Amino acid sequence: RRRAGPRGTMSSPGITSTLAAKRKTKKKHFVQQNVEVFRASDPVLSVLMWGVNHKINDLGQVPVPVMLLPDDFKASTKIKVNNHLFNKENLPGQFKFKEYCPQVFRNLRERFGIEDQDYQVSLARSPPVKNEDGVCEGLLLASYDRTLVVKEISSEEVVEMHNILSEYHQHIVTCHGHTLLPQFLGMYRVTVESEDADLLVMRNVFSHRLHVHRKYDLKGSLVSREASFKEKVKELPTYKDTDFRNKMQKVYVSEEEKEKILDKLGRDIEFLVRMRIMDYSLLLGIHDVERAEREKEEEEMESTSEDEEEEQDENDPPPLPASNSPEGISGYMNAFKPMGPGEFDPYVDVYAVQSAEGAPRREVYFLGLIDVLTQYDAKKKAAHAAKAVKHGAGSERSTVHPDQYGKRFLEFISRIFA
Fold first, then answer.
1. If exposure means fewest CB atoms within 10 Å of the residue's CB, which of 55, 56, 107, 334 is most exposed?
2. pLDDT at 407 over 70
3. Which biological process terms from the Gene Ontology are attached to this UniProt entry (predicted)?
């Protein structure tokens, strides 16, 4: 039995994916659809949406185990579809969809307070869109409600995820989900035309509704850690450690919040050191409340002078569905009073922290660890061996091991607070 997607607002994001053939895709206005179909310009995204929808429906029929077993951390489920004629306008004729460790990720979603139905709607109601806020190479997309990110990962990273998954799960259990680590929510492989794409779904570090005005990728080192000229001319550049220092940037949070953040960070780094992981960063996003208030006033002034019936801008996120239908991770917030600049729901924006009262600027900070799938043993040893061949064995002295990296990182981050 094949299922179509949930009914709701559909859109064509008009993104050019590294996974798809290079082609121009026309941007369309968001319109209400009555037909239950998936629409995505990229067949990989169509299969991802179909697969997530199908698997969550299937998982709903499987009892939740009393406890996870070692086999659950190795398990996977696969669907292979050949020459089907169903929904052929939106799905390729042949594809494979694989879900890694379904019971483990279901358990993690529950521990992070995300219900499967909301997860399903956030990912499968409309195609993911290109995420301008992230910091990574390759494909990085945000779910249409911007609460989740979908990142393409290498087959080596899939192996490393399997290597750390059991310990990661135990860490999340121990800290009751209070962590700055990425919240891993699902891992899939999509195969279209014999091309594999491994995709990892995580909670978005940044807000689904508060715009980030400045962002930094911090590694705790000042060596070659300055944004390039090409990066700095972008609308929202990703600045680095040297830029942070040169701009005399500070994070103004209360003493209590600072202690909470450093406590979480300390435990997370202990875990990463134990897993021999390094090269991770702290992603810091800053929402300027006063700037957001000015922007809101300007928008309101513009909207009053324009025709109220004007068609919705194609760059706006689709409207949240009506309250009597499943709404995704952020959708239920529509039932409450609208939030203003600087206001957020800590159950949705879990990485957000308000600036302290009396701080020089009213800001909201988003702090989360990213890129935590580089294990020292595999990549670093190969890189260091190559460096030793090229520069001689003396170059090994510059090597930073995971414990040194973690210590240096924690020291640097503890100094970013005012």
1. 334
2. yes
3. phosphatidylinositol phosphate biosynthetic process
